Amino acid sequence: MRLIVCISLVVLASVVISEPLLINYQGRLTDASGNAVPDANYMLAFGLFRDSTGGTALWTEVHSAVHTSGGMFTVRLGSVNPYNLDLFDSGALFLQVQIGTEAPVIPRTRLTTAPVSAVARRLYGDIQTGDGFLNVAKGGTKMIELTSGTGAASRASMVMFNPQPEPPGSDPLIQMSADVGGTAGLWLYNPMLTVPFDEKVFEVTNNPTGGASMVMFNPQPEPPGSDPLIQMKTGADGSAGLRLFNPMTATPYDQKVFELVNNSSGGAAMHFLSNGTEFMGVDPSPWHPGGDLTMRDAAGSQTIILSSAGSLSIGTSSTANILTVRQYSSTDPIADAWTTYSSRRWKTNIETINDPLSKVVALRGVTFDWKETGKHDFGLIAEEVAEVVPEVVAYDDNGIDAKSVDYARLTALLIEAVKEQQKTIADMKSEIDKLKAHPVGQPAATAQQ
């Protein structure tokens, strides 16, 4: 049985990024009595594991002819099978060594300096450090700048610069900063500017007293770059909102065209606006917890409501019915056609209307003036119709007050009434024809003898 004593384990860091990272491993090979093995070439196998015992090898490499001198040998791990630097990103690493076909040497050796050096090697470029700052440059041009500030007078920031020659490399592209007042921000600058200036195109801020905000700015010269186009904001009172500002204005102003708001006391809503006036939106509903889709006129009055319960209201705020059209409208609704479900497939207990003519006779057609508009009209009185044919009358939610009449359904009643009346007319005509054939007082004709 042979033993290996690890003499040293050193990372050989290359200055050329394309060269693999090597770990210089030096050891002494002895027999069970501690004597150096004869000078010769030996096969050594190496593996990296996350655990000190067991587990699956993350990387393996075999050196088929490692020469020993007085038991001493040196190998460069990674020279046969380069390993991925991701091995050093997380967790401990243990090196396992095996001599020829013998069992692996125990215990495994834990790597310490190798992971640190490997991770440090990932940061490539000219690194400039000082009191409170760290810069990464390429070819003398600063690419990344980290500053800690003084803590009391200046803010900390991390800035990524534009590597292109135009605009100059000193113009920032991305900046993250924390101010002494407790605010924090993320700025994305426009990389396409032809002349250097400090107009922000994106900003994320957080203030302990004023809430947080994310703003996208217009990089065009008109309107000025300082005018926001898109803003997401939370207020100190718990409110939150998303605002889209009009990018087509010739002069800067703060009129929203779209907003998402959420207030701790008022619920969430989505609004479309013009010149600051809401014309359409989805608002918390006083009738249904799911919210309604609404449209408003210039005065802010609701004109169309599509409720979460599936009802549609036009010109009215009432959503009690599946479809409600505003009463006293100045214009009449018009359509090509309107049909009603009427197939026998959906009906049962079908019977002909009984005594339809007497029902029609009991109805009263009236003329009247509407109270709201003063418009003269004619029709029926719902309460009177309910006493004769209640099937065509609709009621308020209280089930007591009649509110409307389904005039179309009265057609079936009128059809049967006309048929009953026509039968009466036919019977009377038959009697009249008989009287005409046999006048009263005139003997009936007798057969000739």
TrEMBL record:
Sorted alphabetically, which InterPro entries does this protein's record hold? S74_ICA
- The domain of life for this entry's organism is Bacteria
PROSITE patterns assigned: ICA
Instruction: Give start and end of each Peptidase S74 domain.
Output: 342-432
| Official protein name in the record | Peptidase S74 domain-containing protein
